[in-house]
Amino acid sequence: MSGNTSTSMIVTLGFVTALSGFLIVTAYQTTKPAIEENKRLRIQQTVLEVIKGATAYKPFVITANGDLLEATPDLKGTNVYAGYDAQGKLMGLAAEGRAQGYSGSVETIYAYSPACECITGVKVIKQTETPGLGDKVITNKDFVANFEKLDAKLDAAGKALANAIVTVKHGSKKNPWEVDAISGATISSRAIAKGLNGSAQEVLPKVVPLLSTIEGAKP
After folding, report:
1. Which of 71, 95, 137, 166 has CA atoms 20 to 30 A from the CA of 191?
2. What pLDDT score was predicted for residue 134?
3. Phi, psi of 86, deg, nearest 5
4. What's the total number of domains in the chain?
5. Domain that residue 38 falls in
6. Does residue 12 form part of some domain?
């Protein structure tokens, strides 16, 4: 192979590589706004479904310093969604939970009611569990009933949950902070509870002291 041929091949390969990189970046920049908007609409729909009585919502971010700020695309921190009725009354809060299931991450959005200091609803927004088993966390009415009034009270110091949210063997639930597992889908059941507990332990001590600010905000 001559030197000119080698040089030509290298130049061609370099051009193709550069062009491929340019097309990838262009495609990402072009589709990113649509992806972000679809995500926003999906979260909005889920928040309004999970917070009973809410007709409008407002997204907030709790920063690392504990400040509560209206959410913007570049603001980093803990996402919290406030749901309001038609008169602007706060109906509840929503946050995101995530934990590892059997075959992947199980992601949820759950509602918290300050009135009862409890979780009042959960929606699974992403899961890759075994069809017919893991997806029972979505379809099993008895399991979903766990989250109609799941205790999430804070301890006396307000620094953590008074009782961790835990999964128990199917049929053995005795306390309001326990999740009665689905028989045959224990791992998926535990993933839901673990995600809720991890999120609530982090989010609620930060957000409960700021409820008056959230109540006064306009959706």
Report:
1. 71
2. 46
3. -65, -25
4. 1
5. 33-216
6. no
